[in-house]
Amino acid sequence: ILNVEQSPQSLHVQEGDSTNFTCSFPSSNFYALHWYRWETAKSPEALFVMTLNGDEKKKGRISATLNTKEGYSYLYIKGSQPEDSATYLCAPEDAGNMLTFGGGTRLMVKP
Amino acid sequence: DAGVIQSPRHEVTEMGQEVTLRCKPISGHDYLFWYRQTMMRGLELLIYFNNNVPIDDSGMPEDRFSAKMPNASFSTLKIQPSEPRDSAVYFCASGEREDKNIQYFGAGTRLSVL
Question: How far is B42 from chain A (nearest CA, A)?
Answer without folding.
Answer: 6
